[in-house]
Amino acid sequence: MYRRLFSLPGTRAFTAGNLIARLPAGMFSVSAVVMIAGSRGSYALAGTVTATGLAATALAGPWIARLTDRHGQSRTAVPATAVAVLGSVALLLCVRYGAPDWTLFAAYAATATTPNTGGMSRARWAHLLAGDTEALHTANSFEQAADELCFMLGPALAAFLCGTFFPEAGTLVGAVLLLTGILIFTAQRSTEPPPSPTPKGAPPLRVPGVPPLLAGFVATGAVFGSMEVATLAYANATGHRAVGGAVLALQAAGSCAAGLLYGRLKPTGAPELRLRWCLLAMSALMTLPLLAASTLGSLPALAAALLPAGMATAPTMVTAMTLLQHRTPEGRLNEGMSLAVTGLLLGIACGSAAAGWTTDHASPTAAFWLPVAAATTALLLGVLSKSTP
């Protein structure tokens, strides 16, 4: 299946460039926290700066994507990336030379112009595979697995660079990778979707069936955000803080493997029904970390539970993205994909905050109820939303 996918001319080149550009997505926030906290001695400042960047990304992302739909990926992504890289370099220099705290917020906010590389890649597949439902399902599965892989490797690479060389190394390497990857990606003009100066249809937020999907992305993001904080807090509470990130990576590993396997299966039935089954599986599997933490009370047990717990998230995301592609009007696909990412970021932020509050006021074990609640909310949204032709 995957060999057939990459036999299409130009697909290997644009995928290679996109993977290089996508890897820094998992590097920048970790690098910024290590760099700022190490220099200024304040994790609160580091967290606030990265949260500001997250909020700026949520606001700027759909706008950048709309420009991409109207003017084309090559004309939009390169200047947007240049601004984001300059923001990263400015942040690095401000930290290095002790600039006032407010400059850190301004510099990191500039990185919000980073294009949605995953969305642009999915838009290319949708353009190349128009009408081939089975092949598009495989392509979306590969893209989701690539997302999981980058978010597994990115933080580890950032931590290694910052710890081995100098605190700014993670940010510097991430900026170089982002610019290099985007230049390779946008150079592949033959696979680029044509621009739509006058897009057909209404904006995605006004299309029936899209808002419930976006609400589901918010709930799914809350699953990710709350599970991350709960796992790291639990590892810290059990005296294994150093391996918390590695334990958490098992969830992404399970999702990555499941995504690749899911892409090899032939999709059957309505995608709305498939999404509900995926959401049901995710809701059920999210109880495994809760049971491991509350009944067995050991980090190895939690690690063993996180691997299968992640196996429903990739199929859920693949099916939801496929539905979003079907429902988004022609010429607005990048905007639709960007709104999905915005929903995920909002959910991650809310889930992280809720899990942090629960950890402080109750316990890390109690925080594992939140992924279950978020997954159940996503399931209810999927069940209650009406099918859209």
Notes on the protein architecture:
The chain is an all-alpha fold and 389 residues long. It has 2 domains: 10-198, Up-down Bundle (Growth Hormone, Chain: A), CATH 1.20.1250.20; 207-384, Growth Hormone, Chain: A (Up-down Bundle), CATH 1.20.1250. Helices cover 78% and strands 0% of the residues. The chain is built from 18 helices and no strands. Helix 5 (73-96) packs antiparallel against helix 6, helix 8 packs across helix 15 and helix 10 (210-237) packs antiparallel against helix 11. The radius of gyration is 20 Å and the shape is globular. The model has no long low-confidence stretch (mean pLDDT 88).
Provide a concise account of the structure shown.
The protein has 389 residues and is an all-alpha fold.
